[in-house]
Amino acid sequence: MTVGLKDLVSRLWPLHRTLASDGTDEALHVIGEHLPAGAAYAIETYAPGEAVWTWRVPPRYVVHEAYLETEDGERLLDFKDNPLHLVSYSVPVDRVMTWAELEPHLHTSAARPHAIPWEFSYYEPRWGFCLSRAQWDGLPRGARYRAVIRSEFVADPARGLRVGAGALPPGGGGDDAAGEMLVCAHVCHPCQANDDLAGVATAVEVARRLAARPLPPASMGVRFLFGPETIGSICYLSRHEDLIPRLKGGVFCEMTGNRNSLILQRSRQDGHLIDRIARDVLQRRGRAFREGAFRDVIVNDELVINGPGVNVPCISLSRWPYEEYHTSDDIPDIVHEDMLAEAADAVEEIVRVFAANYVPRRTFRGPVFLSRYGLWADWRTQPALNSALDKLMLRLEGKHSLFDIAEELGLEYPLVREYVERFRAQGLVEARPIPSVSEGS
């Protein structure tokens, strides 16, 4: 079911979601409510200051109040009216200053002057306010201003940064040798709907569909990861390094709700099986799409998943660019149910092909007596398969995956998989897992 994807975006959108905040916690709990029970979703906590590879877990960010007013008390900007008025992770301040002193701490959007930009300083201590250009223009230069930010950086381990994750096994249970696929989306952009609650909704929908119609037995499991951008996946993978060798491929979902064509960002390997499968799926869907190289479209957690020391081939699927990006115009109104559903369709199919793919290795010698095993394809009803029978049989040497065979012979993947599965049912081939290329292997 795709009904309700935009409703999920709308429910999460108002929450004050940062790297670690009460709003992020609430978002992760809501996501868990929408995931299937079979995913065994759980939320993990990482203590502020904890070393996670070369990074440190940031503290929880609590804003008690934040506002800008004139020296005589006229309120100009207020965090409680819109969290985007405050630069995320601003340090505390309470001072009266001149325009010249204040102006370096004010931020507007040149591209969308009527909107409030979203600015953040997650890892560098500073403070600031964001406003529209009209508001900025209207501030008297000769006045004195009072800036008040009562923020708190909480180091309590029990209130640390949180990440949510769950995994769906294939039908009939998992196969350790098959490994897993990773589907990831981030939650840490306050008052941003398309970036990236749309990606969250798309990932949740894929999980629902995989639970309703599980992958074939012995397929890869599919793990879903939700957390703050970059640091969330670093925290999770640093705590679960044993998982890295099991990961065969990943998909990062983001910005999937606006009205633009889908764009595929290829993996760092560029030409890996997951790249070819994603391109084939998008081509066969018959809708216009675009593609770009790794880190050339929009940058996110793929640099963790597909980066140094991990290197799990990871694509991203988005609808970048869109004009409302990182401003107060990124609201649920620009997110569309049909766009979310179309993205979920594409991600689901990519996952179904990649996760169910395997490398068939023959157990027979000589050409198979196809008729004896009910494997002959009639040229009158299956001309494409009939003309490829010998070539297909010659590719059952344990060197080509099912998708490789389909791609090389110009056949539809479902046709090849169904046909080779008939060989397997007769004991004529054995299934070998897709090899991992991660640096944890």
Shape assignment: elongated
**Please, what is the oligomeric state?**
single chain
CATH class of the largest domain: Alpha Beta
Radius of gyration (CA) equals: 25 Å
**CATH-wise, what's the superfamily of the largest domain?**
Zn peptidases
What distance lies between the first and last C-alpha atoms, to the nearest angstrom? 37 Å
Observed structural traits:
alpha/beta; 4-stranded antiparallel sheet; 18 strands; Aminopeptidase; about 30% helix; about 450 residues; 8-stranded mixed sheet
Can you walk through the features of this model?
By secondary structure, the chain is of the alpha/beta class. The protein has 3 domains: 5-58 and 158-356, Aminopeptidase, CATH 3.40.630; 62-154, Glucose Oxidase, domain 1, CATH 3.50.30; 359-432. Helices cover 28% and strands 22% of the residues. The chain has 12 helices and 18 strands. The strands form 5 sheets. Strands 1-10-12-11-13-16-14-15 form an 8-stranded mixed beta sheet, sandwiched between helices. Strands 5-4-9-6 form a 4-stranded antiparallel beta sheet. The chain has a two-stranded antiparallel ribbon with strand order 2-3. Strand 14, helix 7 and strand 15 form a beta-alpha-beta unit. Helix 1 (5-12) crosses helix 5. The longest helix is centred in the C-terminal third of the chain and has 20 residues, at 337-356. It is elongated and about 95 Å long. The protein starts with a helix and ends in a 9-residue tail after the last strand. The mean pLDDT is 96.
Topology, element by element:
Layout: H1 5-12, H2 22-34, E1 42-46, E2 51-52, E3 55-56, E4 60-70, E5 75-78, E6 93-98, H3 99-102, E7 106-107, E8 129-130, H4 133-138, E9 144-154, E10 161-168, E11 180-186, H5 197-212, E12 221-227, H6 231-239, E13 247-253, E14 262-265, H7 273-284, E15 289-292, H8 302-305, E16 314-318, H9 337-356, E17 359-362, H10 383-393, H11 402-409, H12 413-425, E18 429-432
Parallel strand pairs: 7-8, 11-12, 11-13, 13-16, 14-15
Antiparallel strand pairs: 1-10, 2-3, 4-5, 4-9, 6-9, 10-12, 14-16, 17-18
